[in-house]
Amino acid sequence: MCDNAGADPSVSAASHDCGCAPDEVYVAPQNKETLRIVYAEINRSCSRGSISDVPDEEFSRMVNALENKEYRIHPYKFIGRTYTHLPSLVTALAVNWEYGKMHLYNSVLADAFENSCLAIGANATICEVEKQHTGNEDRSFWNFIYKAYPELEGFHWRGRNYASLSELGFDMLDKLRCDDVSSYPYWASILRNRLLSDYLSKKKPEDSDLIAAVSEFENVHEKRRSTHETLTNYYKVAYLLSGNRQLMMWGKVFERTSELAEYAEALCGSSYDEFEEFCKALIDDDGVMCPQFEAWLTVVGKKDELVAWQQSIES
Questions:
Q1: Is residue 288 part of a domain?
Q2: Global pTM?
Q3: Structural domain includes residue 12
Q4: Which has more confidence, 239 or 16?
Q5: Residue of higher predicted confidence among 193 and 24
Q6: Sign of dihedral through CA atoms 39, 43, 44, 49?
Q7: Residue closest to 124 by CA, chosen among 133, 115, 136, 137
Q8: Source organism's superkingdom (predicted)?
Q9: Could you tell me the residue range of the domain that residue 220 belongs to?
């Protein structure tokens, strides 16, 4: 059983039967389903004194970072666990978003960072600077976690945790294709706060084309736009981040425009009514394209043709 002494008063005092090492990242129950990165294994690897059994090169790099004495901090209690390594603590703060913010804005983190992390710059100054931006506490907390530990793996925002931007992109595609509107405000907050371009500037500064592309989508979101334009923009972001190139409609999967044309031609030959219905699913009577279809045409290299068609119906 793990001792809960020193845990947040807002967290249940019930003990957690985990049998884990002190630095294992504890995940609040409401975050377990969304967590994709099992940071606990990193610490277990360290406790064995060897990383020879860890197959992934990136995993090994993270373990080495944890073993580096510069990342050691004075014991810090957070949600019933004691942390002695900066990477583990920052990861726990990021994964348990609301509790992490509580610790930052209640000033309890400032002293710990001031006393323990001066060598790598993750000190009280960061805490104090971020606390000044209380007009947007989530954005300030996001700044803090990636400044405190720049090597923090994954994309973390408002309690949702993704191993990569690609995973975020696939999650967006899945929800968009199912007409799941529950995540629209979450995606809007990502674009409004320009997190994608900021994240890529930190993680992949050499990929200027990708940074420019996501910046363009963020710019679009800042402008006045229709619901159709918003959905099309979400699809474009999802396609870009995921790398997926599939159009999924009517239970069919199309990867090339030629496949779509062949299917439409076959449908026309078998049932004109179904063919007409399919065409209206792509483009309605007012000449408005399905958001997924419009975004997909751009992704598969038909942007110029799309623009020319849009100009023709507007003239």
A1: yes
A2: 0.74
A3: no
A4: 239
A5: 193
A6: positive
A7: 115
A8: Bacteria
A9: 164-242
